[in-house]
Design a protein that fits this description.
This protein is of the alpha+beta class. Helix content is 31%, strand content 28%. The chain contains five helices and eight strands. A five-stranded antiparallel sheet has the order 7-6-5-4-8. The protein has a three-stranded mixed sheet with strand order 1-2-3, covered by helices on one side. The relative contact order is 0.15.
Length: 206
């Protein structure tokens, strides 16, 4: 089944909801098709001033895992494309990494997978008088999430509905509960690949 844009429902569900702008957005448009051809998904592109300038490309397999070998494969694929397109005028260091445990949430499925875990998020517009939130997702709707705040003032609503298109940044907060859930998910995914259970998730968010 396709939607009005001619995309399948599966493609639409897998599309990133939180995307980059400006130069980071231009780079994402260059590398995302390359990464997809290899069977990986782009999570985020970020430019920092680390080591002069660092271009961080965060990617993952469809099941959320990402080994060192996967990072190397993505790096080898995107490097020549970036050299040809040349979107960055100065020298830079390319870093390909996994999302890490305290990962960004960028797809509809990310919000559903990590429901009831502690996250922090920012919005592009005021929602119940705020643009920054900390708490847990209690329900994921088609175009919004229901979010329970853990630092709400007595006069504020405890649970608010936040439209997905209003979210500009969302990421998990590291907790013991999250670490346990992430390790179990990683172990199950690697077992599905036929890999050694002792092979840990690699790559770190910076």
């Amino acid at each position: 089944m396709t939607n009005d844009d001619g995309k399948s429902e599966a493609d639409a569900a897998d599309a990133r909801l939180i995307v980059e702008e400006g130069l980071e957005g231009a780079i994402a448009a260059i590398v995302e098709p390359v990464i997809a051809q290899l069977g990986y998904r782009l999570v985020r592109v970020r430019i920092s001033q680390l080591n002069g300038m660092t271009l961080q490309i965060m990617a993952e397999r469809a099941d959320g895992t990402m080994a060192v070998e996967d990072c190397e494969a993505v790096s080898r694929a995107v490097s020549p494309v970036l050299d040809v397109e040349d979107p960055i005028e100065q020298e830079y260091h390319l870093e390909v990494s996994s999302p890490g445990i305290d990962r960004p949430l960028v797809r509809h499925a990310d919000f559903a997978t990590w429901t009831h875990h502690l996250i922090k998020l920012e919005t592009s517009r005021l929602v119940s008088g705020r643009k920054r939130f900390r708490g847990k997702i209690v329900e994921v709707l088609r175009d919004a999430i229901r979010f329970e705040r853990d630092q709400a003032h007595p006069e504020e609503e405890l649970v608010v509905e936040i439209a997905l298109d209003a979210i500009t940044d969302a990421r998990l907060i590291l907790t013991d509960e999250l670490i346990d859930a992430a390790l179990k998910a990683d172990k199950a995914a690697r077992k599905g690949h036929g890999e050694n259970d002792n092979d840990p998730a690699t790559g770190q968010d910076q």
